[in-house]
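During the reporting period the student researcher (J.K.) took over the structure-prediction task from the postdoctoral fellow and processed the backlog of single-chain submissions. One of the processed entries is reproduced below for the supervisory committee.
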Amino acid sequence: MTLVRRSDGRARYLVRKNLQGVDEEIAELGDGSVILCTDDYTIYDDIDEYDGIDAHLAITHDDAYVIGDAHVNSCENRHSFIRQWLAKFRGVSKHYLQGYLDFLSLRQNETRGWFDAILSYDSSA
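J.K. obtained the following C-alpha cells:
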C-alpha cells in the first residue's frame, strides 16, 4: 500500500497481506482528519469503517481519474518508483521488503539528503 500525505507530499509504503491493523498506521501517519482516496479495488470496500479513517473515496478509473479533490495520482506516481528501486538489488526477500521500501521512502521524503538524515537520527525519540 502506498500512502501519500497531501499536506507535504511525504510518502510511506506498507507491505501487508491484508488490511488488518492498517487503520492504526494510516491514522498515525495522517494529520488529524484522514480521508482515504483509493482505486476501486475490492480490498478497500469497508475500509472507512476502521477507526481513524474519517471517509473513503474510491476512484473508478473507467469513469474518471479525479473527483473533486479525490485522486490517487500522487500514490501512483510514488508507487511507480518501486520496481526500478528494487531492480537494483536483483531480488529481495519478502522478509526484508518493508525495510527496502522504508529506505526508498526516506530517500524520497528527505529534503536535506538521506545520508544526513541517517547521521542525525535520534533513536531515543
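The committee noted the following: The first strand starts at residue 2 and ends at 4.
J.K. will present the remaining backlog at the next meeting.
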